[in-house]
Every structure is written in C-alpha cells, then in structure tokens.
Specification:
287 residues, alpha/beta, eight-stranded mixed sheet, binds adenosine-5'-diphosphate, binds magnesium ion
C-alpha cells in the first residue's frame, strides 16, 4: 500500500463517527432484470419509512435513475470530480426526501482517475457515510474490473434475477464472482418478474441448491416481486411505480419486503464502523 493510501486511511479513521450508513449494492449477471426499478423504489420505500437514504447511480454509461424519476439532474458525479465540488453539491433530492446522485455520462473515466482525484472521491464518499442510514448503489449488469470494487466494499449485495434459466445462470456467475473475492459480504437474492409465488420460490430454491453445492455458500432470500404491468406503465410515465401505483401488486410486495428487511429478520452484513470505506480503499489501492 502506498504512503498516500496509508495517510488517507488514517484520516478516515480519525473522522469516523459511530453511525455509519449501511451500504447496499444492487447487481445482476444479466441486464434488464429490474435493478434500477428495484433500487429506486426500494430507496423510496425506505425513505417513506423515515430513513435517510441516498441512491447512487453507478451504472457506467447507462445511468438512468433520473430518467425513471422524470427529472433532469443539474450536477452529476462527473462534475463532482472534474470540478472538485463538495459531494453535497451534487446530491439531488427526490420524493420523501430521498437523496440521489445521478450517474451522468463520462462515468467510465471516474474509475481511471489519478490517485489525487481518487483520494478526493473517497474522502467525499466517507463524508456521506455519516449522513445517511442507507446508501444504495445501482450497478450495471455484470462486473467490470472497475465497478466490482464498489460491490465488494459494500456491506450487502442484492443479486437480482428473473425466473428465466439464463438469468438464473448469470446470477449464479455473479454470486460466484463476488464470493471469490469477499466471503464476508451478505448476499441477498431478489427474484423479480415472477409469474407466481411458486415460480419465485422455485427460483430461490434452485439458486440456493447450486450455491450450497458448488460454493458451500448460503444466500439469503430478500424476497419475490411479481411481474406487474405497473412497472412498464411507470417507466413510460417517468414516475416510480411505488408512487404512481401505490396499490399495485408489486408495490404491496415491495412494502412487505422493506418491512421484513428493516425489522431485522435477516442477519446484519454491516461489519462495523467504516468497513465500507476501508474496504474500498483496499480494493482501489491494492489492485
Ligand atoms: N417486476 C416487473 N414487472 C414487469 N416488468 C418489469 C419488472 N421489473 C422490470 N420490468 C421491465 O424491465 C425493464 C428493465 O428494468 P430496469 O430496472 O431498467 O432493469 P436493469 O436496471 O436491471 O437493467 C423495465 O423497463 C420494465 O419494462
Ligand atoms: Mg439499470
């Protein structure tokens, strides 16, 4: 590790406070499974439950949280590091005081920035950890060498799949990849676009069987969300489905999922103060 990284880590530890946001990355093997719609509506549902939530669009080159919300971001993550703006300047506000950071275009360069800019970025991220209850990263499909660090540094990772066999195989590949580098992360499985509860349960069972058999690894089912026309309707009207269709089947399922998630029926994946930022430094600096 370089001196600069050691200094940074020391600074981070000095300013660390007791309360640290739980960091959650939302990932999938295959694209178009519903990560962005889930990330956005899960974030809104937690915000409705009076939690301070920051949604961070990290889908490289394809960031679309702002499109799903029908807003035009004034600043994005790209401006933050180019102009060295304080992170608070690029945070936009959404429904129920949800905060979000738009991806913007040109995001690929973000991951190839100089050490000085990387340190600046990490310091800004560290600031955020004390200000929120949850920070949710909406990731792109698959895992590029650049984005995997955010996934690996997160306290928890939600792997999204549909019941389609190809999606299940890709989800398995993603889990295997994450698990290879980080056995401490709490891996959740979310089945989206299920035609029935039975189909959702079968999908969970199949993935649990293969991960147990081939990786000796256990995954935690986060829930099952139905295939629902409310989603495409919401996408078309650029309004999150949980707001446009509060009584839709999928919104009710998501409310239940959030309730279950928050009442702590799952084990906690947060391994202590500053775990996220220290792991991120490790993954960024020790490539
Ligand atoms: N539960 C669902 N029911 C019906 N359609 C869905 C559902 N989830 C996602 N979709 C459809 O899939 C498309 C892709 O969703 P999106 O959240 O952008 O996926 P990703 O971020 O994984 O690429 C949406 O535009 C919507 O039409
Ligand atoms: Mg997406």
């Amino acid at each position: 590790m370089t001196d600069q990284a050691a200094n940074l880590r020391r600074d981070m530890n000095r300013i660390k406070k007791n309360k640290q946001a739980k960091t959650i990355s939302v990932v999938s093997g295959k694209g178009g499974v519903g990560k962005s719609n889930f990330s956005l509506n899960f974030a809104i549902t937690l915000a409705k439950r009076h939690k301070k939530v920051l949604l961070f669009d990290l889908d490289i080159g394809m960031g679309n949280i702002d499109i799903l919300m029908g807003v035009q971001p004034t600043q994005t993550i790209v401006e933050m590091y180019e102009k060295e703006l304080p992170v608070y300047d690029i945070i936009e506000s959404g429904p129920y005081s949800l905060s979000y950071i738009a991806g913007g275009s040109g995001l690929p360069e973000l991951f190839q920035m100089s050490e000085y800019k990387q340190n600046y970025f990490l310091q800004q991220l560290n600031e955020l950890l004390v200000s929120y209850d949850y920070i949710i990263f909406d990731m792109g499909a698959g895992a590029s060498a650049d984005t995997i660090r955010y996934i690996l540094a997160s306290d928890e990772s939600v792997v999204v799949t549909t019941p389609e066999p190809t999606s299940i195989m890709d989800a398995y590949g993603m889990m295997k990849h994450i698990y290879y580098y980080n056995q401490d992360i709490l891996l959740y499985l979310l089945v989206n676009q299920a035609q029935s509860t039975k189909e959702g349960e079968q999908t969970i069972k199949r993935l649990q069987q293969v991960t147990k058999r081939f990786l000796q690894m256990s995954i935690t089912p986060l829930g099952i969300l139905p295939k629902d026309k409310a989603v495409s309707k919401a996408v078309l009207s650029q309004t999150p489905f949980s707001l446009l269709e509060p009584n839709a089947k999928i919104t009710r399922a998501l409310n239940e999922l959030a309730e279950h998630y928050e009442t702590g029926k799952f084990e906690s994946g947060n391994n202590g103060p500053s775990a996220f930022i220290n792991k991120l430094i490790k993954f960024v600096k020790e490539r």
